[in-house]
Amino acid sequence: MAEQGRPKVVISRCIEFDHCRYNGDMIGNELVRRLKGSDTIEFIPVCMESEIGLGVPRDPVRIVQLKGGSNRLIQPTTGMDVTDLAVEFSEGFMASLKEVDGFILKSRSPSCGIRDAKIYPKVENAAALARGAGLFGGAAKTHFPLLAIEDENRLRHVKLAEHFLTQVFSSASWRKIDQGGSMREVVEWHADNKLLLMMYSQKEMRGLGNLVANRDGLSLESLKIRYGEGLRRAFANPPRCTSPINVLQHCLGYVSERLSKAERDYFLQQLEMYRDARIPLSVCLGVMRSWVIRFQEPYLMRQTFFQPFPEGLLEVGVTDSCEWRDLSDKE
Ligand code: SF4
């Protein structure tokens, strides 16, 4: 199986790293605490408001939409407009990131928010007129449109957390191949990740398969660039909740002849129960994994589908039943 790399993840510094919020607080987050403790991720903590010299504690800033439609970052108590400083810092920071696999940013912040920062019609007290990205969060989305970018609030949803971890660990693992892997290693990486890609997007999986077959005789460098782009497209949205069922039915084809009819029927029944949201996916995965180990089926043994990120990073006992229908709308 492809070696799991150590993802590099930019994180809002006020989430579990520093008391740098406007009021001197730090935000607690169970998942980030566990990820920090596991040491499986290299975090890059950053606080834009501290970096542009606003200090801690400080009076809050807010996004104000001017009449012409442009957004400014303003500190109402002082009337200070820090937009230019914020843009300069954010652009410089994003451009300096040579290796990055994802972002975990603070929800609702006028700086770090990625979708839900309040936008006000004027500096004085008024109801918000809309919600949108903060200046730093918006810059992250613009510079890295297909990268894993989430806020700490959404990561409380187990499926979004799974999706995020799958994205960043796949990205880190591919980065190693991208930075020096041979053609053979690219082919192997694709083979290891085939079922994971199948769960995310059959279309992209086929496209990437054709790419590694390299019928067009691309140079290794060009092929890697196109493969990386396809990979980010494939992982851009969470898989549909029924997608793992197709993959597990595909897996069944590899071990089916060595099973009794009763075992096959039991497994298919479990898949239907998962489809009906009566049991979690982990039950079906556990049964299939036990057969993969029992039969030492080489093609399935190597698949990252069964373990796309290190074990133990998500809370034990959380539900992963098929009760969500579509999480692909990230806005
Ligand atoms: S939300 Fe961003 S800018 Fe605000 S305190 Fe946290 S890290 Fe700093």
Main sheet specs:
5 strands, mixed
How are helices and strands ordered from N to C?
EHEHEEEHEEEHEHHHHHHHHH
Give the C-alpha Rg: 22 Å
Number of strands: 9
- Any ligands, ions or cofactors bound here, and which? iron/sulfur cluster
> Low-confidence spans: pLDDT under 50, at least 5 residues?
none
Q: Order of strands across the widest beta sheet?
A: 5-4-3-7-8
The level of helicity is 40-55%
Gross morphology is: elongated
CA-to-CA gap between the ends?
A: 34 Å
Summary?
By secondary structure, this protein is α/β, with parallel strands linked by helices. The chain has helices at residues 30-38, 48-51, 83-96, 135-143, 158-178, 183-192, 194-200, 202-213, 220-234, 243-255, 261-275, 281-295, 298-301; strands spanning 8-12, 42-46, 62-65, 71-75, 80-81, 102-105, 117-120, 130-132, 148-151.
Description:
The protein is α/β, with parallel strands linked by helices and 331 residues long. Among the domains are: 8-156, no CATH class; 161-234, no CATH class. Helices cover 45% and strands 11% of the residues. Strands 5-4-3-7-8 form a 5-stranded mixed sheet. Strand 1, helix 1 (30-38) and strand 2 (42-46) form a beta-alpha-beta unit. The longest helix is centred in the middle third of the chain and has 21 residues, at 158-178. 35% of the residues are buried. The mean pLDDT is 94. The protein binds iron/sulfur cluster. The site of iron/sulfur cluster has 13 residues, from helix 2. Iron/sulfur cluster (SF4) binds next to helix 2.
